[in-house]
Amino acid sequence: MYDFEGDADNGELSFYSGDVLTIIRQDIGDGWWEARNAQGEQGLVPETYVEIMSSVEEWDDDWDSDDGEGSSNSTVGTPGGQDLQGQGNFGLAAPRREGKQLSPSAEMSKYGTVKSSFNRFSTFAKTGGEAFLMGEVDKNVPESDRIRIIETAEGPRWYCPDSQRYTCSVASPKKESKMKGLKSYIAYQLTPSFSNIQVSRRYKHFDWLHGQLESKFACIPVAPLPDKQVTGRYEEDFVQERMKFLQMWVDRLVRHPVISRSEVFLHFLTCTDERKWKQGKRKAEKDEYQGGKFFLTLSAPQQALDMRDVDAKMELFCKFVMNMTENVKQLNAVMHDYSKKQMGPFKREYTKIGTSFKQLAMTFNIDTTESSKQLTAAIDHTGDAYNEIGNMFERQPPSDAYPLMDSLHEYKGILQTYPDVLKVHEGATGKAKDCLKAQEEGKMTEAEVNKVLARADTISYGTLAEMNNFQTERVKDFKLMMQLYLRSQIKFYQDMTKKLEDALGHYDSIQTPS
Amino acid sequence: MYDFEGDADNGELSFYSGDVLTIIRQDIGDGWWEARNAQGEQGLVPETYVEIMSSVEEWDDDWDSDDGEGSSNSTVGTPGGQDLQGQGNFGLAAPRREGKQLSPSAEMSKYGTVKSSFNRFSTFAKTGGEAFLMGEVDKNVPESDRIRIIETAEGPRWYCPDSQRYTCSVASPKKESKMKGLKSYIAYQLTPSFSNIQVSRRYKHFDWLHGQLESKFACIPVAPLPDKQVTGRYEEDFVQERMKFLQMWVDRLVRHPVISRSEVFLHFLTCTDERKWKQGKRKAEKDEYQGGKFFLTLSAPQQALDMRDVDAKMELFCKFVMNMTENVKQLNAVMHDYSKKQMGPFKREYTKIGTSFKQLAMTFNIDTTESSKQLTAAIDHTGDAYNEIGNMFERQPPSDAYPLMDSLHEYKGILQTYPDVLKVHEGATGKAKDCLKAQEEGKMTEAEVNKVLARADTISYGTLAEMNNFQTERVKDFKLMMQLYLRSQIKFYQDMTKKLEDALGHYDSIQTPS
How far, in Å, CA of B426 to CA of B436, rounded? Predict the structure, then answer.
């Protein structure tokens, strides 16, 4: 993602933004991975400078070994699971992965250089989105499936009564095994606040849910799951780290006014019975209001939208997403660099000062007169204080830079998925404009076109409601992120000041001859 | 003095501790000089990593052009003044400079590797020190010239009644000229607290005084004067910097119980009449109690000293001086490095954070809803705060590292002159031991030897009194240095905390939708 000038003496591997590296080891620790470049050179690379493009190893090797499906041809003992893509039980998984392998330059639009898959619009067309726009689908959506959009002073918004808000904890990861211990995995315990009943979910369940949400909610960017990782999967740190990101991921979904109340999400959060789980799973996979057809479920305001106004809003938002993508990458890189500096050079600088003071105190210790002894003790204590400040610098990033980087990482994921969502809208309005042209050419009637425009408005209303939701969430999130970051920085410098004040206090009592 | 790994791309010149470089330019600024190594390579070197060994250019080019002496063969217009060494009006200057060119390895003793001239003992012998020890000089010292040493719980000390303490300010540097403006120089105004009468002194007067003090007080290390510098001599910064160091130098002398009351020093501080100045100057230069004969003026306690006890004390103190010399160099190098880091990488790190926040705010500015605008303003303000913190890091060294480095520099000078003083004592006790041996061999009578031993004790008393004075001053000085350093550091981190608290405050008022 970024240029990295590695220190070859320290075994680091240099690379440029855009280089493709093969990751050899991910369990080095301290934010380093081992990688090999195209020239076959190996070395350490900072993990936040690279991004996993695609790998069959991303998939749990026990992917298809429970839930009954495919258990007759279990791949136990087949690491990597290359033979799994074609199984089709989690249908969307394969096309999604193929989508991510598309080159960004293969299909470009005004959404520009944001790297992502650009096949959502074709999916939209394939899955019946175009059919929705052209009125070729029925609209007998049951009331329970309907999603309301309301007009507010700040534009269209998802309707969500406060009474329906809830939270959900992700906790207590447990190592479980099956097939007489041949296979083991980690199960996380989820407890929604509305039921207080705990359900046990594995990473693959999250992954299935993610696929379902992405397929269904055509105008809602769903944050990617935390990165998959094969090596060291059961190590305590890794499990805790993954759990933290799963909690963040769940937090965002339970806050979402549409997703939080969707049947598939509630099924995921509440189902404890294995038979019912499979039923609900199959039902979700057969959901007829997925993709383009999702717009059938929207109850948008009747008022027609001004197409130029909508276009202008989309253009601005698109710019926002692209710029914010860059800002988030930049800030993340700066924070990564800052935390490396804190743990390395900053710590070293203060430790060097501490060591110099302590060495001076060792010499001063030769003079055993009372006032000299007091000074020696005070300087030695100052040396300790600077050494401790050095250690504070080393311990600080998990309190300030890392949490900020975690949140930025989450936003990076959301922003990456946004171009897909915007392309759905772009495709729909493009089609609507085609229809207006067709009307001018006498190929469509005004009544037909008005119906198309109304349906295009529904897509616009949904997209705008989600954009407004994104902005509201962004303001809340960044307010909190900045507050947490600044509070932690303030605490850090206050603690440092306290250490120095304590050190200074040791000099007050030194009795020097007049 | 230290290894320096320069960045050749930045035009820096690498060298090792001990390398001899030729300084080409001293007016580069920011602590850099331009130098050439033995291989003819040129580049920038950090001035605190090197020390001026010897140079004819150290001498003011108007050295002998006033005070009437030698004015008939004035060297106006002869820069460098290579022809000045033999003029002898400031007799001690020449041998002192020659002394500094002696290789440290030429004459080694237990004072080991401390680099300095080692010809003091021979000077001591030459100037009548050995004669003093052997009783070949009369002792009719007038009462007014007598210096008392008293025994205290912490050993022998110079007697100095509090009533005789005073201070002296060095201020108001004025550019003056003579010979119809052909020559100009800076005169500093000195005002002793006991008279409150201002006297005007040039650097060359300070240099003359320094030479007199060094020649006279055989057991007292006199701090070197601040470095001489030819280029940019009248620039405001240089003058202020030199004045600061002259003030430090005078401060140390007025605090010294012996020097502060010496005739030559008081003459320097008080004489306003040009004719009397020359008289006093000549009198000081002809002072018969200089060098070894200085010990004639000491009124030491009668009690005989235990030679082994004195030897042990000297050995320990010698170790102290050597270790402290290393500590001071080390701490100075660390502080130099720390201040460079503060002004460079530390500042850059905080500026990078500030810039990233401000760039994020620029993107967020696209969303003009009220709560977003409030967040944007807060983040922009946080960006400003980090930029200001970056600037604070850049401005900080003059408040903490530099004052500490100035004091360390002064101590480095004092410690460098100490081996000379200790060698005087070593020579005296060595001679006393020779006499004891001569007594055993029947070559000297017990009465003769006892007189020698009593006179050796006088030298020991003087040396011990000065050592105790040094240690008392050291405790006072380092207490103050550390307090100033820590207070400045505390203020710095408090100011930083305030900036961050102010930034944090901007988030509290952001109204986010529930």
Answer: 15
CA dist., res. A513 & res. B282, Å (int): 37
* Residue range A194-233, pLDDT digits in tens: 999 999 999 999 999 999 999 899 899 999 998 765 455 5
Q: Is residue A108 within 8 Å of A118, Cβ to Cβ?
A: yes
Q: What is the signed CA dihedral for B6, B7, B10, B11, rounded to 10 degrees?
A: 50
Report yes or no: B157 and B256 within 8 Å, Cβ to Cβ. Answer: no
Q: Which of B367, B483, B501 sits opposite A507 (nearest CB)?
A: B483
Is A337 in Cβ contact with B349 (below 8 Å)?
yes
Selected residues 19-48 of chain B with any CB under 8 Å from a CB in chain A: none
Q: Does A319 touch chain B (CB under 8 A)?
A: yes
A341 touches chain B (CB under 8 A): yes
- Pairwise CB contact (< 8 Å): B493 & A490: no
pLDDT tens digits, one per residue of A389-436: 999 999 999 999 999 999 999 999 999 999 888 888 888 888 899 999
Long-range contacts of A1-9 (CB under 8 A, 24+ apart): A1/A49, A1/A50, A1/A51, A1/A329, A2/A49, A2/A329, A2/A333, A4/A45, A4/A46, A4/A49, A6/A43, A6/A44, A6/A45, A8/A43
ipTM of this predicted structure: 0.77
Residues 6+ apart with CB under 8 A from B189: B170, B171, B172, B173, B174, B198, B199, B200
- How crowded is residue B303: how many other Cβ atoms within 10 Å of its Cβ? 9
Q: What is the DSSP letter of B15?
A: B
Residue type present at position A70: G
Amino acid sitting at position B3:
D
Residue A242 is labelled as binding a ligand: yes
CA distance A500 to B497: 14
Cα distance from N-terminal residue to C-terminal residue, chain B: 65
The C-alpha atoms of residue B345 and residue B322 are separated, in whole angstroms, by 34
The tokens of A414 are what? 């959301």
Burial class (CB in 10 A: 0-12, 13-18, 19+), B236: exposed
Cβ contacts of A83 within 8 Å, gap of 6 or more: A75
Instruction: Tell me the pLDDT tens digit for each residue of A480-502.
Output: 999 999 999 999 999 999 999 99
> In this structure, are residues A376 and A368 in contact, taking their beta carbons and an 8 Å threshold?
no
Residue B3: is its pLDDT beyond 90?
no
- What is the value of pTM for the model shown? 0.76
State yes or no: pLDDT of A145 exceeds 70: yes
The answer, yes or no, to whether residue B60 has pLDDT greater than 80, is: no
Q: Give Cα separations from A283 to A212, A266, A270, A290 (angstroms).
A: 11, 13, 15, 12
The reply to whether residue A356 touches residue B334, judged by beta carbons under 8 angstroms, is: yes
Please tell me which residue of chain A has the smallest CA distance to B509. A479
